[in-house]
Amino acid sequence: MGDISDALNEILNRADRQGQPNPYALGAKADIRADYEQYANDEAFPIKPQKMIYDLRQVMGPEDIVISDVGAHKM
To answer: Of 1, 26, 64, 65, which has the fewest beta carbons less than 10 angstroms from its beta carbon?
Structure first.
């Protein structure tokens, strides 16, 4: 538990790279994109998560972010 303002400022401080993107993050982003783009034409049922992400990315802007938390539904 904590103050959201303090938490967000700490995340910002740790993420600040003086405008330089993290090379690891850039590589991970490319790897993730390559993975879900393989499913662009997948018609399997049930739908695979990669296909869902591919379709979602088609309607989102390049800087848009989606966060999904499925919670503890299996507990």
So the answer is: 1
